[in-house]
Amino acid sequence: xxxxxxxxxxxxxxxxxxxxxxxxxxxxxxxxxxxxxxxxxxxxxxxxxxxxxxxxxxxxxxxxxxxxxxxxxxxxxxxxxxxxxxxxxxxxxxxxxxxxxxxxxxxxxxxxxxxxxxxxxxxxxxxxxxxxxxxxxxxxxxxxxxxxxxxxxxxxxxxxxxxxxxxxxxxxxxxxxxxxxxxxxxxxxxxx
Length: 192
What we know:
about 190 residues, 6 helices, alpha/beta
């Protein structure tokens, strides 16, 4: 299986590659349009800041490429947020794959760092994952719950811990750092 891991000046790529190895797969880190377009699966990882990440994508014309992909695509953390319409982080216009705004947590404990549970799981992405399974989160911004939500988490109120539309899947948590539950999510994504 050919797995492209998008290179766009965002972190956690090493962790994603190691996690893929743990589930018996291998990814290629690339920003080459042909490699991305021809991949069986695309992973859009991310730890970073929205406006600079979007600038990198636009500069390399990867924004339009991502929108045109027809194979399964998995956004992780910042990757999920960039798939939305707009982010409050840097007042950033994002890819618009999901008609949702990314908002900043307003409370005292920002960012959310650590383990939290996901519930109301409803997607093949969560096959063989227990309801209320715990995943590892590190984020200050979130996607509101709505019609695309396939998992919810509560932190200063409910938010989408995973969303899906057509071939685009995205998770706010880090499956690569989330133990067995995270590995199962990656396995499920690779099996789509």
